[in-house]
Design goal:
- The complex is a heterotrimer of chains A (173), B (179) and C (440).
- Chain A is α/β, with parallel strands linked by helices.
- Chain A has a domain of 111 residues: NADH:ubiquinone oxidoreductase Nqo5 subunit (Beta Polymerase, domain 2, 2-Layer Sandwich).
- In chain B, α1 runs antiparallel to α5.
- With 440 residues, chain C is mainly alpha-helical.
- Chain C has a domain of 297 residues: Orthogonal Bundle (Cytochrome-c3 Hydrogenase, chain B), CATH 1.10.645.10.
- Helix content of chain C is 47%, strand content 11%.
- Chain C has 19 helices and eight strands.
- In chain C, the strands form three sheets. A three-stranded antiparallel beta sheet of chain C has the order 1-2-3. In chain C, strands 6-7-8 form a three-stranded antiparallel beta sheet. A two-stranded antiparallel sheet of chain C has the order 4-5.
- Chain C starts with 7 loop residues before the first helix and ends with a helix.
- Classes of the chains: A alpha/beta (173), B alpha/beta (179), C mainly alpha (440).
- The interface between A and C is large, with 57 and 63 residues.
């Protein structure tokens, strides 16, 4: 099982084989599972039955400017990724699930039915990346105003830096 | 204020001094604590750095009862209309201290989400630098404000004095456009 | 699914973050509210029909309200004084910190993340530093780790004392606010001595800490620790037995362990339901496995339990800090890897290599190998996590902070439901959200 602090060399540990039928890998000593979009819900559901009772984190990543990242064989890289971190109290272990989400059709099944705590996190991922979660009860923007256009954390969205404005000093009162 | 109509003479001068003394010695701040600076503002109101000695320990939650709005913290795009609404609800005479660099100029966050200086929205009287400004700095800015109240004309409107920022209107170079 | 998936644009056009009147609320969302956290939403036909909108009132609390918990807006539907539905609306402090982090180097990173949870900034810096070191695969010297533990536990004390202060003020014990800030001042004075700043210190950096502890630090810390217990007993006497305090906190905001697990809630809220989950004990990091301290666990999952847990956590932190003071070893305060740590200033005059390293680290930053990692620590509010993905360059590719307050706010509608409006204030205070880490 994975350790939280990684200190072993990756060469000393064997790469795990399939976990619930999908490729898995080790990232700095942490176990990562890579299902496709179609098997995502089934794999997470199986992990929940395995004892991963809490979903601690769900976030999106936009790999537009880093398409050549290392992935296990059999996993086709897409533009977006959703990374889900699960926690098991009894085993005191964590596991990560990374799903590839294509740019042309940025939808993914929602984990709300399994873990109601992903409600706010999926809204945040939708807000900042534009990934639509199918089955989420209330997918609205959460951090930005309702009428905001665009999804700021995408790599093709500028930071929005403006040049420093030097202003006249207030007149004598 | 009806004092604008009176001819200035010795008696009205004394009256103005009394009014200014009363105004500056019991400025009531409205709580507009947003982020980290709010914690330092609360610390200045607490016992160690006491704001009560300046007559300011009552932080009024309702803007209708407040004279001073201390904008403490970074103002996001979503919060900006709320800020303006609270400012508009305050009654004249009112002052604004922008506390911290985020409120004064956007601070370290020069990005899509933060208003680059609260003086884009409300006219500011005193800018307080610091990230966050310690309670001593905040008190210095409050005393500067008191000094401004003491020496300033009480009947001149802000438009005449030009208090607050005179913004150079430049078209920003890149505002949230795709690269 | 027979229904076609809406595109992002269609969603945006029809959606709104605010609480809608019942007749405008979809069936699925309406079913979520009454304890349906664990219930799988059934078919929309089961929604009770014919709400009577003129009997209930939707009011808005915030975002500007007495500044104890920042800019949180809670919309509530009230029937008289009783809260039926509620919805927290966040985002009023969204600073785009995760986007900013992609523009800053790893050495500048702590300045950015430290302003997320501004009440316990050293935890944010710690988690960022631990994540970066996990990616770099460097080993930090022991003294640096002990210093980090010392600062984190002192920060935990100051954060919980701030919570006591603001919670007291929310429930009406205004003198508690003044006492709480008095305690904080002694700790902040020590932080100022170490790092130069009272808040947002940028002290814990990848590779170690920014500077060694100042001379005489032991005396300062022991002076703090000697003053605390008696004062904590005073606050205990002031609040715990007091009938008004008990009426306002016992039985208010009850949550169960299953609901916490389903919602992803950690920290004092989870421990108040009886689950003894504290990352310092269950998945130790730094040197917490060598420390002797207790995990404070509640029983009823109500507001009073959470107050008791936080008060006693200060006592446990005092124990830990005493042990750290005993055990602090001499040595380096940062890793001696020249590619990661800037050289000491004196060396720059003597050695060309040191000058070049200094230059490269401060302008370009050190490069971090490609990979991604998730590291979590136990902050005063719960599990604080950092998901860091690197593409081999000197700036993070993706930094995501799992803010415990963001997740914990999901239990707010559940806890407030059925209570009075005044209890809503108590519940918001007991959840202890810090909006900086909620909105980032």
């Amino acid at each position: 099982m994975s350790e939280q602090k990684s200190s072993e060399e990756p060469a000393a540990e064997e790469e795990p084989a399939l976990v619930h039928g999908v490729p898995a890998s080790l990232s700095r000593g942490q176990l990562v599972v890579h299902p496709g979009r179609d098997r995502y819900l089934a794999v997470v559901s199986a992990l929940q039955s395995d004892g991963y009772q809490m979903c601690v984190d769900l976030c999106g990543v936009d790999y537009l400017t880093h398409p050549g990242r290392t992935l296990p064989p059999g996993v086709a890289p897409e533009r977006f990724e959703v990374a889900v971190n699960l926690l098991s109290f009894s085993e005191r272990a964590r596991i990560r699930v990374r799903v590839q989400v294509p740019d042309a059709d940025p939808t993914l099944a929602s984990l709300f039915e399994l873990y109601p705590g992903t409600e706010a996190q999926e809204r945040e991922t939708y807000d900042l990346f534009g990934i639509v979660f199918v089955g989420h009860p209330d997918l609205t923007r959460i951090l930005l105003p309702d009428d905001w256009e665009g999804h700021p954390l995408r790599k093709d969205y500028g930071v929005g830096r403006i040049p420093v404005q030097f202003k006249g000093a207030p007149g004598a009162r | 204020m009806g004092l604008a109509d009176l001819n200035h003479n010795f008696l009205t001068g004394q009256l103005e001094d009394v009014v200014k003394w009363a105004r500056r010695n019991s400025v009531w701040p409205a709580t507009f604590g947003l982020a980290c600076c709010a914690i330092e503002m609360m610390a200045s109101g607490a016992a160690h750095f006491d704001l009560a000695r300046f007559g300011m320990e009552v932080f009024r939650a309702s803007p209708r009862q407040a004279d001073l709005m201390i904008v403490a913290g970074r103002v996001s795009q979503k919060m900006a209309p709320v800020l303006r609404q609270v400012y508009d609800q305050m009654m004249e005479p009112k002052w604004v201290i922008s506390m911290g660099v985020c409120a004064s100029s956007g601070g370290m966050f020069n990005n899509y989400a933060i208003v680059q200086g609260v003086d884009q929205i409300v006219p500011v009287d005193v800018y307080t630098p610091g990230c966050p400004p310690g309670p001593e700095t905040l008190m210095h800015s409050i005393l500067t404000l008191h000094e401004m109240i003491r020496t300033g004309e009480i009947t001149r409107r802000r438009a005449e004095t030009g208090a607050g920022a005179a913004i150079l209107a430049e078209r920003p170079v890149s505002v949230a456009t795709p690269r | 699914m027979s229904k076609t998936v809406e595109t992002s644009q269609e969603l945006q056009m029809r959606s709104s973050q605010e609480l809608q009147m019942r007749m405008d609320t979809t069936g699925v969302e309406a079913l979520r509210e009454p304890g349906s956290v664990l219930r799988i939403p059934a078919l929309p036909e089961e929604v009770e029909s014919q709400p009577t909108p003129h009997d209930t009132m939707i009011i808005n609390m915030g975002p500007q309200h007495p500044s104890t918990h920042g800019v949180l807006r809670v919309m509530m539907e009230l029937d008289g004084e009783t809260v039926l539905r509620s919805k927290p609306v966040m985002g009023y402090l969204h600073t785009g910190m995760e986007k900013t982090a992609e523009e800053l180097t790893y050495l500048q990173g702590p300045t950015n993340v430290t302003r997320m949870d501004y009440v316990s900034p050293l935890f944010m810096e710690t988690v960022f530093a631990l994540a970066t070191e996990a990616l770099l695969e460097v080993e930090v010297p022991p003294r640096a780790t002990w210093i980090r533990m010392l600062m984190c536990e002192l920060n935990r004390m100051s954060s919980q004392v701030l919570w006591l202060a603001t919670n007291g003020m929310d429930l009406g014990a205004i003198s508690m606010m003044i006492y709480g800030f008095r305690e904080r001042e002694s700790i902040l004075a020590f932080f100022e001595k170490c790092s130069g700043l009272r808040m947002n210190h940028n002290y814990i950096r990848p590779g170690g800490v920014a500077a060694d502890l100042p001379d005489g630090w032991r005396d300062d810390v022991l002076a703090i620790l000697d003053a605390f217990p008696k004062r904590l007993d005073e606050y205990d006497t002031l609040l715990t037995g007091q009938p008004i305090w008990r009426e306002r906190t016992q039985g208010i905001g009850i949550i169960t362990a299953e609901e916490c697990t389903a919602l992803g809630i950690t920290g004092p809220i989870l421990r108040s339901t009886g689950v003894p989950w504290d990352l310092r004990r269950t998945m130790p990091y730094l040197f917490y496995d060598q420390m002797d301290f207790d995990i404070v666990v509640g029983r009823y999952g109500d507001t009073f339990d959470r107050y008791a847990i936080r008060l006693n956590e200060i006592r446990e932190s005092i124990k830990i800090v005493r042990q750290v003071v005993e055990a602090m070893p001499p040595g380096d305060y940062r890793v001696q890897d020249k590619k990661v740590t800037p050289p000491p200033r004196a060396r720059i005059d003597e050695s060309m290599e040191a000058l070049i390293h200094h230059f490269k680290i401060f302008t370009e930053g050190f490069k971090v190998p490609e990979g991604e990692v998730y590291i979590a620590v136990e902050s005063p509010r719960g599990e604080l996590g950092c998901y860091l993905a690197s593409d081999g360059s000197a700036k993070p590719y993706r930094l995501h902070i799992r803010g415990p307050s963001f997740i914990n706010l999901q239990c707010l509608p559940h806890m407030i439901r059925g209570g009075l409006l005044a209890d809503a204030v108590a519940v918001i205070s007991t959840v202890d959200p810090i909006m900086g880490e909620v909105d980032r």
